[in-house]
Specification:
homodimer, two-stranded antiparallel sheet, 2% strand, globular
Chain lengths: 203, 203
């Protein structure tokens, strides 16, 4: 398809497409004449990934570029590549410290894998510190409740990823992490609301 | 305690405490002389709530104030009050439309309560639209997987709230919603990572 059709089908203005191409975020089309390039489904898929990260989740362009670079040039270890790509998603926490005492204790207690370089470890540390500061319960029993629910969710989420080649697995893992999060959190709030309404109506 | 001690114990500078008092976000201390006011544990609790919302979750001051106003002057219906308070938390989505076709269908399918005024309905709508646009699965079976996990989590979370008087239940529900979210999401990412690592080591 021509760039005008790519624009129409993706909803992205031609000027923005040209910006993405200049920035190396979108591959050039295949030149079919001196003045025309041809774009394909892979360009549409790339634009969906950019839109989900930049527009829906509001990632800064530098983070979107970091993820796209990993899609285009994965590092040697697939788990490391996936970890870095997902690590470019918010929340952004300080990462220049490598002691995560609360997270380390919780991860060991819960039987998960502790890897100080994996961003979610620092995110958990920050989350646990906030609970502690607010005086909320962060006991092993309470954390296990969340961890059990998340393991259950993660097990069904990870199944398709394991079967994919890495260049598909990275965008899928990033999109899946980024886009199911708000859905899951909305469902948690709806479950609270539903329980309160049903308790009132029963009382 | 004196304002200087309140500052020390809360970690909030005296100038900021005075700002909160002027803005009506923190109650005045009890005047014990013309130049001294006495502060108590309730002031510390209020400062913990403000810090969790403003510093940890990064809420704009207008949203923090909205929540504090509901704590101080709840509306008639407790569920409505809780809904408004939790609705002041991010993510902030457009709320001037009252059709939520995707969310409505999902909520009915999942057996939850549909209430167009409850912010999580609009948040779910936006989340489902993003999944659709990215070409990710939002089938009833997939949503049920998240919903089941969230119901399970919510049931144990809601138990203490139901037993509290409203002026305690509001800050508790707001803090609990805001501060367990990042912990739960970090645990989801850690569960993904753990499953990939274990599958690699077993393979």
């Amino acid at each position: 398809m021509k760039i005008s059709e790519l624009s129409e089908r993706s909803g992205v203005p031609v000027a923005t497409l040209k910006f993405y191409i200049r920035e190396g975020m979108l591959p050039r089309g295949e030149a079919v004449s001196a003045t025309r390039a041809e774009y394909g489904e892979e360009h549409l898929a790339r634009l969906r990934l950019i839109a989900a990260l930049a527009d829906v989740r509001g990632l800064p362009l530098s983070r979107v570029r970091e993820i796209l670079n990993l899609v285009d040039a994965p590092v040697d270890d697939p788990i490391e590549t996936l970890g870095r790509a997902v690590g470019a998603l918010p929340p952004y926490v300080e990462r220049d410290r490598d002691d995560h005492p609360r997270a380390r204790a919780a991860i060991e207690e819960l039987g998960l894998t502790y890897d100080a370089g994996f961003t979610a470890v620092a995110q958990l540390e920050e989350g646990l510190r906030a609970l502690e500061h607010a005086g909320l319960d962060a006991s092993p029993e309470t954390l296990r409740r969340y961890s059990d629910a998340m393991r259950q969710v993660a097990a069904s989420e990870i199944a398709p990823v394991a079967a994919m080649p890495l260049d598909e697995a990275i965008p899928y893992a990033v999109l899946g992490t980024a886009l199911y999060e708000p859905v899951m959190l909305a469902l948690r709030r709806l479950a609270h609301h539903d329980l309160l309404v049903k308790a009132r109506d029963a009382g």
